Amino acid sequence: MTNPPEPPALLATFDAHDATQALNWIAVTLHTIRGALDQPATEAASAWLHEGRDACRLTLQRGDPYLVTITHATTRITWTIHPVLYLPQATHRTTSITKCRTSPNPDTQR
């Protein structure tokens, strides 16, 4: 009797500011784990590091998502990269925001 496979699990997220930062994060992670992978997974990681990054970058520049998947024995590791357009929130530390007046406007007093 074999155990049923475990469902996929989200182990971490990373908010990259651009495609280059996302690609670098995956590259660093692949370099870090490559020594512990079996031969087929090591070859797949090396192939992506040497040839897959350009295809990934072009896909992201078109605005499409991209998956990087490495399978080691019975474990599948997938990185999902998808462009997200958003406006960062303004904070008092990074943006000059006008303070509210503490005294009444002299022009409106009569």
End-to-end C-alpha gap:
89 Å
Radius of gyration: 23 Å
Number of strand segments: 2
Structural class: alpha+beta
Strand order of the largest sheet: 1-2
Unreliable parts? none
Biggest sheet layout: 2 strands, antiparallel
Number of helices: 2
Beta content comes to 5-15%
Helix content: 25-40%
Explained architecture:
The structure is a single chain. The protein is an alpha+beta fold and 110 residues long. The chain has a domain at 19-81. It has two helices and two strands, in the order H-H-E-E. A two-stranded antiparallel sheet has the order 1-2. A hairpin with a 2-residue loop joins strand 1 (66-72) and strand 2. The radius of gyration is 23 Å and the shape is globular.
Please name the defining characteristics of this protein.
110 residues, alpha+beta, 2 helices, 35% helix
